[in-house]
Amino acid sequence: MLRSIALKSLRDVGKGFVWWSIGLAGFVALIVSVYPTVHSNPALKRLSEDYPKALQAFIAFGGQVDYSSAAGYLGIELFSLMVPLLFLVAAIATGAGTIAGEEERGTLETLLANPVSRTRVVLEKSLALALEIVGLGLVLWLALWVGALAVGMDISVGHLAAATLAAVLLAIAYGEIAVLVGAASGRRSLTIGVTAAIAVAAYLVNGLAPLVDALEGPQKLSPFYHYAAGDPLRRGVSLSHLAVLVGIAIVATTLAPLVFARRDVST
Predict the structure, then answer these.
(1) pTM of the model
(2) Cβ proximity of 5 and 124 under 8 Å
(3) What does the angle CA 181 – CA 184 – CA 188 come to, to the nearest 5 degrees?
(4) How far apart, in whole angstroms, are the C-alpha atoms of residue 125 and residue 7?
(5) Sign of the torsion angle spanned by Cα atoms 137, 133, 168, 124
(6) How far apart, in whole angstroms, are the C-alpha atoms of residue 202 and residue 264?
(7) How many Å separate Cα 162 from the centre of its chain?
(8) Using one digit for the tens of pLDDT, what is the confidence trace for 93-132?
(9) Could you write out the three-class secondary structure of 42-84?
(10) Residue 49 banded pLDDT, cuts 50, 70, 90
(11) C-alpha angle 46/167/80, rounded to 5°?
(12) In the chain, domain spans
């Protein structure tokens, strides 16, 4: 009998997690090391103020484009695009591999041959996905903390943690959506494509909403809106916005076993 599907799943992604962590820490170090030069450059500040509104809508994190402050710089260079992009790639790849990936490799049938329920398989693999992303979040937070201290960034550890938490919950939400799509389809490539398309559409809706009045309502449905709307780098944790991301993850995780139980596993 398998003692822990979640631990087995974490071991399977262990080597990839190490490389992800090294790359993430190195990328953060590179971005943070440039801050002293950017911070003291008034020409860049004037340039950013002249950016087209369409560009500002996509690079602003928390609604502000500001290179002169640590929160503004990190928001533009990291949290507006790169951090959620990297975290979503990791989460969606893992989510697509939990059910659909194993099914395509032919290992899912062997797993289900053990005295374990389909519900347990899905829930423990979903837990492993969440733990993987939380681990990457800890790496990101520590790298930011150390980097901020090294270059003298004026930003609190708590606000760095709040922004990191928002990115973690956004990624987990889409990762669990990938688990749901994979449980329904059994096809890894389709799962990645569908989940990525959902994420891109939500990102575009959120980014274009300040420019298109008709998108103001749909914007509130975008997970990316709730990821950044609380302006965590300046204001800290926004429980109401983070609760939406948690809710999405819970709904997807709840539906995945129900969908998977109704489908025959391909052999």
Answers:
(1) 0.92
(2) yes
(3) 55
(4) 9
(5) negative
(6) 31
(7) 14
(8) 999 999 998 888 888 878 887 888 889 999 999 999 999 9
(9) HHHHHHHHCCCHHHHHHHCCCCCCCCCCHHHHHHHHHHCCHHH
(10) low
(11) 20
(12) 5-261
